[in-house]
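Box 3.1 A note on notation
Throughout this textbook, protein chains are presented in two layers. The first layer is the amino acid sequence; the second is a C-alpha cell string describing backbone geometry. Keep the layers aligned when reading.
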Amino acid sequence: MQADVKTKKDQAVGKVVDAAPCEPNVLTDTVARAEILNRLRRAEGQLRGIQRMIEDGENCLKIGQQFSAVRKALDSTYLRMTVCFMAQELESRLSPDEAQKLELGDMIKDLETLLARMG
C-alpha cells in the first residue's frame, strides 16, 4: 500500500511535483516537554478554579484577575515551548561543538528574557 504523498504546484514552471511527506515538528526534549505539560496542568487547574468561582457567584473583578493570571501563564508556556523548540532545531541544524552550545544556550536565554518582557 502506497503512502499518501501530497503534491504541490510548482508556480515557477507551472507543473505538479511530488512533495515528500511532511514530518511534524515535534519537541523531542523530554525535560522540556515535561515542563510544558506541568505548566499546562497548572493552567488547567486555574481554569477549573475560575469555573468554580463563576458557579459560586464570585465577584467579577476577582474572576477577571484570575483570567488575567491564567492568560499570562498560557502566554509564558507558549513562549517557553517556542524557545525550547527553536533551541532544539538550531542545535540539530548547526551541529555546534560544546563551546558553541554554551554560547547558543546563553543567547537563547537572553532572547527568552527579552521576549518575555514584551508581554
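The beta strands are 7-10, 15-18. The chain has one domain: 30-118.
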